[in-house]
Amino acid sequence: MHYRQLNRTVAITTGLIMCAVYVLYTFHACLLSGINRSIKQTAAVTMASSTIAITTSAAPAPLPQVRILGSIVRIVPLVDDMTLKQPATTLRLLAPNTTDASPKYRFLRQQGLRPSRHLPDALIIGVKKSGTRALLEFIRLHPDVRAAGCEVHFFDRHYAKGLAWYRHHMPPTIEGQITMEKTPSYFITREAPRRVRHMNPATKLLVVVRDPVTRAISDYTQAKSKKRDMKRFEELAFTNGSTGGVVDTSWGPVRIGVYAKYLERWLEHFPPAQLLFVSGERLIADPAVEMGRVQDFLGLKRVVNEKHFYFNSTKGFPCLLKSEERSSPHCLGKTKGRNHPRIDGVAIDRLREFYRPFNQKFYHLTGINFGWP
Ligand SMILES: Nc1ncnc2c1ncn2[C@@H]1O[C@H](COP(=O)(O)OS(=O)(=O)O)[C@@H](OP(=O)(O)O)[C@H]1O
Q1: The CATH fold of domain 117-366
Q2: For residues 196 and 135, is the Cβ–Cβ distance under 8 A?
Q3: How do residues 172-208 score in pLDDT, each as one tens digit?
Q4: What is the pLDDT of residues 308-355, one digit of tens each?
Q5: What's the pLDDT tens digit per position in 283-305?
């Protein structure tokens, strides 16, 4: 009897102990998971509210502590988010308000480099229809160059909008990259040299030039593509509408080819060493060589070379194997490399004669013989 009572007491005590252990275990598990959940939520709110909240706390916040059944327990957050471990600058750069999504740019952001917009260091100022787009697209292959995609026309049309407006039209760059823009009409804009110098007297100026006769025909071809009923080239290039008349210098396509006249204005405001003259003909015949000169002038490592180009025999022009925007081979658009209309040989000869003294003067001013016929 005494023995049976003892057994029962042991069984009851054991049962009570097990119950107590179970209750304590359940209590602890609930408590811990509750704390863990609240930590996760706090971290998520902190992340979502702004990156600044994370970036401004330079010293790491002390880990929260709780007292559980007399023991001090440090709560380690179980937030599975690697971004929390990244440096503050990286987090700021990953913020969604950064707009430039080009692959090159994304890569720079991942490196923790902070981009900002700057006024141009170098400008392609002209000359219209000489290969300015080709030059811009080719130099943009360089990782240290970023350029505005469109012609901004600040120094001719939008000058009143101010330099802040102009800067806003520039792409973001990081330290060491140069900012560029091309607007071919700057070359012939009377106020442009003074305005550019006012912006920055150290601005580097690139001028692409091409045989002025071919350039005039190219200019005419472009105008005719927009206005089908345009008169013939020969009618517009001479005062009485035929090659019997004098060359009509009031007609834009002819006037622009008098390069020496416009260059003299630029030389009143900039030393010759700040201008580089790029041959439009050589940019087609041997783009890599011409791009070597351009990179030297801009103080860049020669990165753009013959490996970037291939000659597209259908288009009749050098094209790019890849570029900032596209990784597949491509040529410039349809408006570059148009077929020119056939022009009367007498008109061509008359124009060549007309330009010859101006070309000689241009060769003299630049120190380069471009070899135009
Ligand atoms: N690689 C390549 N592909 C196509 N076209 C090329 C190239 N390199 C130079 N060119 C010549 O560029 C001429 C157009 O010059 P621009 O870009 O300065 O024209 S514009 O002033 O911006 O309208 C354009 O003139 P057109 O041939 O009359 O169309 C071309 O002769």
Answers
A1: Rossmann fold (3.40.50)
A2: no
A3: 999 999 999 999 999 999 999 999 999 999 999 999 9
A4: 999 999 999 999 998 777 889 999 999 999 999 999 999 999 999 999
A5: 999 999 999 999 999 999 999 99
Q: What does the alpha-carbon distance between residue 371 and residue 373 come to, in Å, rounded to a whole number?
A: 6
The pTM (predicted TM-score) of the whole model is 0.74
Report the residue count for the chain: 373
Cα 359–Cα 243–Cα 216 angle in degrees, nearest 5: 45
Which residue, among 205, 314, 318, has the nearest Cα to 263 in the 3D structure? Answer: 205
| Rg, C-alpha atoms of the chain | 35
CA distance 37 to 55: 24
Q: Is 103 exposed, middle or buried (0-12, 13-18, 19+ CB in 10 A)?
A: exposed
Find out whether 319 and 283 touch, Cβ atoms under 8 Å: no
What DSSP string runs through 281-326? HHHHH-HHHHHHHHHHHTT--S---GGGEEEETTTTEEEES--SS-
Confidence of residue 11 (pLDDT cuts 50, 70, 90): low
Q: Band of the pLDDT at 371, cuts 50, 70, 90?
A: very high
Measured in Å, residue 50 CA sits from the centre of ligand 1 at 47
Q: Which residues line ligand 1 (CB under 6 A)?
A: 128-134, 184, 218, 221, 283-284, 317-318, 331-332, 336-338
Pairing relationship of beta strands 172-173 and 116-117 according to DSSP bridges: antiparallel
Distance from residue 207's CA to the centre of ligand 1 (Å): 14
Residues contacting residue 104 through CB under 8 Å, at least 6 positions apart: 143, 324
Residue 175 half-sphere exposure, CB side, CA atoms within 13 Å? 4
